[in-house]
Amino acid sequence: MKVKRLYTIGDSWTYGHDLENPKEQSWPTLLSREFDCELMNNAENGGSNDWVFRKTVEWVSEHKNFDDTIV
Fold it and tell me: Judging by beta carbons within 10 Å of its beta carbon (0-12, 13-18, 19+), is residue 41 exposed, middle or buried?
């Protein structure tokens, strides 16, 4: 299976807090480069578990096909 999309969500670790350039150095960015796929990083500094859960349910409910997506 060819991965076309990578969806990540989380707190400051996933966002890349304390990195010089989070958009280029965060682990989701590095992973999406390895898979050569589109990245949707919906992380936020200080994101609580409740926020992560709600945003994930919201995102999943808006999408129909996950055959080529890693969540």
Answer: buried
* SS3 assignment, position 29: helix
Do residues 44 and 15 lie in contact, with contact meaning Cβ atoms separated by under 8 Å?
yes
Q: Enter the DSSP assignment of 11.
A: S
Q: For residue 5, which of 42, 32, 44, 24 has the smallest C-alpha distance?
A: 32
Own/partner pairs, 22-31, CB within 8 angstroms, 24+ separation: 31/6
pTM of the model: 0.84
What would the mean pLDDT of 29-38 be, rounded to a whole number? Answer: 95
Bridge partners for 41 per DSSP: 8
